[in-house]
Design a protein that fits this description.
7 strands, 7 helices, elongated, alpha/beta, 196 residues, two-stranded parallel sheet
């Protein structure tokens, strides 16, 4: 197993430090200084990255050469430092940090050979309260999940007044109900996957 290999490898010992029983503050300190982290477990391939439909869309469009911006409530504390590298090429001036004394939103992506599932622990609103698409100078608004449109149906009217086109990902949640279905015809492009 990996722990035994780390314990017995003289070549790795100068570079690898094993730590257990750390407090949250000590973990944050290690994360801030680490070049790499290894978490031996039964969940090989575990990583921490920025995610969500809005971020993924912005990252893909940025990779294609488009100018993009993200409006979201982002994690603070050690999570912010970790995802900062993923957000480096995207304009995040419309984002706000979730205060450290509030619960941070976390999503776990469980990926198998043929399927995937996203389990999210939500933490308050998805967008900064003051965000208005019309003030962004953008030509298109992409909404990363239907829940955001339910929280902020004003986004559609505001984007339309600014002459913007609108697309939306589904990010289906069984608790959404029929209110979400009524919003779908109001966007120009709806992007559900086959199961949604």
């Amino acid at each position: 197993n990996i722990v035994a290999m780390l314990d017995h490898s003289s070549a790795l010992q100068p570079y690898v430090h094993e730590a257990t029983g750390l407090t949250d503050g000590e973990i944050a300190g290690v994360l801030a200084q680490a070049d790499a982290l290894l978490f031996p477990s039964f969940a090989e391939g575990l990583g921490l990255y920025a995610g969500g439909g809005a971020y993924i869309t912005a990252a893909c469009l940025t990779a294609l050469g488009a100018r993009t911006a993200l409006a979201a409530r982002l994690p603070s504390g050690p999570f912010a430092q970790i995802i900062a590298r993923d957000l480096a090429l995207i304009d995040t001036s419309a984002c706000e940090a979730i205060p450290e004394d509030q619960d941070q939103q976390v999503t776990v992506a469980m990926v198998g050979a043929e399927d995937r599932a996203f389990l999210t622990r939500r933490s308050g609103a998805s967008l900064p309260g003051a965000f208005r698409p019309s003030g962004s100078g953008a030509r298109h608004l992409h909404v990363g999940e239907l829940t955001t449109l339910l929280e902020r149906p004003d986004l559609i009217e505001d984007a339309r007044r600014a002459g913007m086109t609108i697309s939306a990902d589904c990010a289906w949640d069984d608790d959404l109900g029929s209110d979400a279905l009524e919003l779908i015809p109001l966007v120009d492009l709806f992007l559900p996957n086959a199961d949604e």
